[in-house]
Design brief:
Strand content: under 5%
Order of helices and strands: EEH
Number of helices: 1
Number of strands: 2
Strand order of the largest sheet: 1-2
Amino acid sequence: MDNECRCARNVDCDSGRCEGYLPNLVCEARLANGASCNENSDCSSDYCSWSFKCDDAPVAGPATGTDGGSSMTTAIIIISIVGVFGIGLAAYFAWSKKAQYTEVPTDVVV
């Protein structure tokens, strides 16, 4: 199929890239290195890096790429830790404020 033709799967397209949102999927050309991507089939190199950019496929070896994946993972871990700490701190202050209240009598004597 040519570009802009309707498709259901990547294999339906000559380029091997079926893009869009259901039900409006169309064939599109693959992207050059440096372009934004969200899956390997978006790129002419067949590799979408962890930083969502088309790049040359990494050479097999240690899991430390130059695509920013390790720094992205570090950032996610730090944000997660700060988030958990923030939730814990908010729960602590909510609980300690509750302990400072005095009970209001609900019995009314007339």
